[in-house]
């Protein structure tokens, strides 16, 4: 669904209630951005409905729609019993929307989840390297990696950079845990399909970018999962790469790597441990390609 509208000023109290949305999004949200639109958002299938509680009020059902306003992620919302007209839509977001949106015509794209049948048909023979739960076949255990790293960081409200995200499995898990996520995937076809998954299957507001140059210079948490061997199969540049990423990591870097290197067998697992540093979280056998090791390293950025 596409709606058009303009920003309208609210009464100025919504910013007090960002914590209200934590049960729905895993983090406080920036509230709210009001838009007068040329239709009714209630004609689109909602992403989710949850009971939320405002101070000094009883819990009430709130319905959310995943949207983009002029290309910026936001969530439209309506609560049960609201007296606001259907042509007035309230939006919340993980980060403040740009101020310039208040002064220009707005195009709101409302995303709806595909049916299970459409997801199943679309997903056939896709995603060999990431194991989404909605796939009929499971070639890899992506959830194992997430279960390994998830307890070792505070994701709520954190900025996360997923370097070499592929279709975005771990980006979506981090977003679901309350993070503001940017996924970097240079392969155009893969990145576009990752965006499809975000908008029509996982229903998560993950930002996909083609290159790291378009991303924030520093992030709280960085994911560098099974990437090094794709451009440096001998690991000759591994030490320098880890040092470089740490300069852009405020809190924690997670690294997954194949052991030993795929080509040349130039370094033993113990040597790779020394090159990466940090804490070894897990060593496991990948279903399709070799033994893997997952590390946690403290960030270096201020």
**Form type:** elongated
Q: For the CA atoms, what is the radius of gyration?
A: 21 Å
The CATH topology of the largest domain is Rossmann fold
What's the overall average pLDDT, rounded? 90
CATH class of the largest domain: Alpha Beta
Number of domains: 2
CATH superfamily of the largest domain: Vaccinia Virus protein VP39
Order of helices and strands: EHEEEEEEHHEHEHEEHHEHEE
- CATH architecture label name of the largest domain: 3-Layer(aba) Sandwich
Percent in helix: 10-25%
Strand order of the largest sheet: 10-9-8-11-12-14-13
Strand content: 25-35%
Can you put this structure into words, describing what you see?
The protein has 302 residues and is an alpha+beta fold. The protein folds into two domains: 2-110, Riboflavin kinase-like (Elongation Factor Tu (Ef-tu), domain 3, Beta Barrel); 117-298, Rossmann fold. It contains eight helices and 14 strands.
Key phrases:
6-stranded antiparallel barrel, 302 residues, 7-stranded mixed β-sheet, Rossmann fold, single chain, alpha+beta, 2 domains, Elongation Factor Tu (Ef-tu), domain 3
Give a quick summary of the entry.
It is elongated and about 65 Å long. It has 302 residues and is of the alpha+beta class. It is built from 8 helices and 14 strands.
Fold topology:
Elements: E1 2-8, H1 22-25, E2 30-37, E3 48-52, E4 60-69, E5 72-79, E6 88-93, E7 106-110, H2 116-123, H3 142-149, E8 159-163, H4 169-176, E9 180-184, H5 188-200, E10 207-209, E11 219-225, H6 228-231, H7 238-246, E12 249-259, H8 269-276, E13 279-285, E14 291-298
Parallel strand pairs: 8-9, 8-11, 9-10, 11-12
Antiparallel strand pairs: 1-2, 1-7, 2-6, 3-4, 4-5, 4-7, 5-6, 12-14, 13-14
């Amino acid at each position: 669904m596409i709606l058009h509208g303009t920003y309208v000023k609210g009464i100025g109290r919504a910013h007090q209630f960002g914590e209200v949305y934590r049960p729905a999004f895993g983090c406080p949200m920036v509230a709210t951005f009001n838009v007068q639109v040329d239709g009714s958002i209630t004609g689109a299938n909602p992403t989710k409905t949850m009971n939320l509680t405002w101070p000094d009020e009883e819990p009430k059902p709130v319905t959310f729609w995943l949207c983009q306003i002029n290309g910026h992620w936001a969530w439209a919302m309506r609560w049960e019993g609201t007296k606001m007209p259907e042509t007035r839509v309230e939006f919340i977001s993980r980060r403040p929307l740009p101020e310039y949106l208040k002064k220009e015509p707005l195009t709101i794209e409302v995303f709806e989840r595909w049916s299970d049948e459409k997801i199943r048909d679309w997903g056939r023979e896709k995603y060999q390297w990431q194991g989404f739960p909605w796939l009929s076949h499971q070639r890899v255990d992506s959830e194992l990696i997430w279960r390994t790293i998830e307890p070792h960081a505070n994701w709520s409200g954190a900025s996360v950079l997923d370097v070499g995200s592929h279709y975005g499995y771990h980006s979506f898990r981090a977003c679901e845990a309350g993070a503001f996520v940017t996924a970097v995937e240079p392969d155009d076809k893969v990145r576009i399909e990752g965006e499809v998954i975000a908008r029509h299957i996982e229903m998560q507001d993950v930002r996909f970018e083609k290159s790291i140059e378009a991303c924030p210079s520093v992030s709280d948490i960085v994911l560098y999962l099974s990437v090094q061997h794709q451009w440096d199969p001998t690991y000759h540049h591994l030490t320098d790469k880890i040092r470089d990423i740490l300069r852009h990591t405020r809190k924690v870097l997670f690294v997954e790597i194949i052991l030993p290197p795929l080509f040349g067998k130039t370094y033993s697992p113990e040597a790779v441990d020394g090159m990466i540093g940090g804490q070894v979280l897990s060593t496991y056998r990948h279903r399709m390609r070799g033994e893997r090791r997952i590390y946690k390293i403290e960030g270096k950025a201020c």
